[in-house]
Amino acid sequence: MALRFFHLRGVDEVLDQTGCEVDGLDIVRSTALRAARDVMSGDVREGKLDLRLRIDVETQDGAVIYSLPFARAISLFKNAEAA
Q: What whole-number distance in Å separates Cα of residue 59 and Cα of residue 43?
Protein backbone atom coordinates (compact mmCIF):
# COMPACT_ATOMS: atom_id res chain seq x y z
CA MET A 1 0.00 0.00 0.00
CA ALA A 2 1.13 3.53 -0.71
CA LEU A 3 0.32 6.83 0.93
CA ARG A 4 -1.67 9.09 -1.42
CA PHE A 5 -2.95 12.63 -0.93
CA PHE A 6 -6.33 13.71 -2.34
CA HIS A 7 -6.22 17.47 -2.93
CA LEU A 8 -9.20 19.62 -3.91
CA ARG A 9 -8.10 22.12 -6.54
CA GLY A 10 -9.56 24.61 -8.96
CA VAL A 11 -10.91 28.01 -7.95
CA ASP A 12 -10.14 27.12 -4.33
CA GLU A 13 -7.51 24.74 -3.00
CA VAL A 14 -7.84 22.43 -0.02
CA LEU A 15 -4.77 20.28 0.53
CA ASP A 16 -5.00 16.85 2.11
CA GLN A 17 -2.49 17.00 4.97
CA THR A 18 -2.82 13.40 6.17
CA GLY A 19 -3.36 11.29 3.06
CA CYS A 20 -4.51 7.69 3.11
CA GLU A 21 -3.03 4.32 2.29
CA VAL A 22 -4.39 2.92 -0.97
CA ASP A 23 -3.43 -0.06 -3.05
CA GLY A 24 -3.59 0.31 -6.82
CA LEU A 25 -4.89 2.82 -9.34
CA ASP A 26 -8.43 1.40 -9.32
CA ILE A 27 -8.73 2.20 -5.60
CA VAL A 28 -7.23 5.66 -6.20
CA ARG A 29 -9.86 6.33 -8.88
CA SER A 30 -12.81 5.11 -6.82
CA THR A 31 -11.63 7.03 -3.74
CA ALA A 32 -11.24 10.24 -5.78
CA LEU A 33 -14.70 9.74 -7.29
CA ARG A 34 -16.26 9.25 -3.87
CA ALA A 35 -14.46 12.34 -2.52
CA ALA A 36 -15.58 14.51 -5.45
CA ARG A 37 -19.19 13.38 -5.13
CA ASP A 38 -19.12 14.00 -1.37
CA VAL A 39 -17.98 17.60 -1.92
CA MET A 40 -20.51 18.11 -4.71
CA SER A 41 -23.41 16.75 -2.67
CA GLY A 42 -22.63 19.20 0.14
CA ASP A 43 -22.49 22.06 -2.36
CA VAL A 44 -25.78 21.03 -4.00
CA ARG A 45 -27.48 21.12 -0.58
CA GLU A 46 -26.40 24.78 -0.48
CA GLY A 47 -27.79 25.38 -3.97
CA LYS A 48 -24.52 25.49 -5.91
CA LEU A 49 -22.34 23.18 -7.98
CA ASP A 50 -18.88 24.27 -9.13
CA LEU A 51 -17.68 22.06 -11.97
CA ARG A 52 -14.39 23.97 -12.21
CA LEU A 53 -13.02 21.96 -9.28
CA ARG A 54 -11.07 18.72 -9.41
CA ILE A 55 -9.46 16.13 -7.16
CA ASP A 56 -5.72 15.68 -7.74
CA VAL A 57 -4.15 12.57 -6.24
CA GLU A 58 -0.47 12.91 -5.41
CA THR A 59 2.34 10.74 -4.16
CA GLN A 60 4.39 11.68 -1.11
CA ASP A 61 6.86 13.30 -3.52
CA GLY A 62 4.15 15.57 -4.96
CA ALA A 63 3.73 13.82 -8.31
CA VAL A 64 0.13 13.90 -9.58
CA ILE A 65 -0.84 10.33 -10.46
CA TYR A 66 -4.54 10.93 -11.11
CA SER A 67 -6.76 13.94 -11.66
CA LEU A 68 -10.56 13.88 -11.63
CA PRO A 69 -12.41 17.00 -12.83
CA PHE A 70 -15.78 17.33 -11.10
CA ALA A 71 -17.50 17.45 -14.50
CA ARG A 72 -16.38 13.84 -15.09
CA ALA A 73 -17.66 12.67 -11.70
CA ILE A 74 -21.34 12.97 -12.60
CA SER A 75 -23.77 12.51 -15.45
CA LEU A 76 -25.83 15.63 -16.05
CA PHE A 77 -29.29 15.35 -17.57
CA LYS A 78 -31.26 18.42 -18.58
CA ASN A 79 -34.87 18.76 -19.61
CA ALA A 80 -34.97 19.57 -23.33
CA GLU A 81 -37.28 22.53 -22.61
CA ALA A 82 -34.81 24.02 -20.12
CA ALA A 83 -31.86 23.96 -22.54
A: 27
Query: 21-76 pLDDT, tens per residue?
Result: 999 999 999 999 999 999 999 999 999 999 999 999 999 999 999 999 999 999 98
What is the Cα–Cα distance from 67 to 79, expressed in whole angstroms?
A: 30
Strands ordered across the beta sheet of 2-9: 20-22, 2-9, 54-58, 64-69
Instruction: For residue 39, give the H/E element and its range.
Output: helix 25-45
SS3 track for 41-76: HHHHHCCCCCCCCEEEEECCCCCEEEEEEHHHCCCC
DSSP 14: B
- pTM of the predicted model over 0.85: yes
